[in-house]
Amino acid sequence: MTAMATDDGVRTDRGALAVALAEARAGRAEGGIPIGAALVVDGEVLAVGRNRRVQDASPILHGETDCLANAGRLPASVYARATMVTTLSPCDMCTGAILLYGIPRVVIGENRTFLGGEELLRSRGVEVVVLDDPACVELMRDFVAAEPALWNEDIGED
């Protein structure tokens, strides 16, 4: 699924986060885990994604990996100009995908609920921006309170 920017809204980190947050909310409305992502290149949203573990019974469709899959095959030169925008700090799997494709910048909605591989990203030269967005925090806190077993499953805990 690809979304095109229709105004300058995604040219800012907060504008791009709004796109990812809409994906997170859509995922929650489908009964899934509310984590969304957007791949932004040159001010344009190339793809969006959301955690689809529940909807597709998939162990690997987190927001970022779904977004990358939706972007399809891209040349390295495109990834090298990309920003991965995600509503929640990326887990080790999503951190690895960001590193594998050489995405140089990650914008994170919040990292209070879950602190992923931010230090690894930074240690590998990736610019990491944490917005500490109240809407992202509230969405995840409400979800974790309502669905603790599903949340623990998503992050690989019992």
UniProtKB/TrEMBL annotation:
<protein>
    <submittedName>
        <fullName>Cytosine deaminase</fullName>
    </submittedName>
</protein>
<dbReference type="GO" id="GO:0005737">
    <property type="term" value="C:cytoplasm"/>
</dbReference>
<dbReference type="GO" id="GO:0055086">
    <property type="term" value="P:nucleobase-containing small molecule metabolic process"/>
</dbReference>
<keyword id="KW-0862">Zinc</keyword>
<dbReference type="GO" id="GO:0072527">
    <property type="term" value="P:pyrimidine-containing compound metabolic process"/>
</dbReference>
<dbReference type="InterPro" id="IPR002125">
    <property type="entry name" value="CMP_dCMP_dom"/>
</dbReference>
<keyword id="KW-0378">Hydrolase</keyword>
<keyword id="KW-0963">Cytoplasm</keyword>
<dbReference type="GO" id="GO:0008835">
    <property type="term" value="F:diaminohydroxyphosphoribosylaminopyrimidine deaminase activity"/>
</dbReference>
<comment type="subunit">
    <text>Homodimer.</text>
</comment>
<comment type="pathway">
    <text>Pyrimidine metabolism.</text>
</comment>
<dbReference type="InterPro" id="IPR016193">
    <property type="entry name" value="Cytidine_deaminase-like"/>
</dbReference>
<keyword id="KW-0479">Metal-binding</keyword>
<dbReference type="Pfam" id="PF00383">
    <property type="entry name" value="dCMP_cyt_deam_1"/>
</dbReference>
<dbReference type="GO" id="GO:0046872">
    <property type="term" value="F:metal ion binding"/>
</dbReference>
<feature type="domain" description="CMP/dCMP-type deaminase">
    <location>
        <begin position="11"/>
        <end position="128"/>
    </location>
</feature>
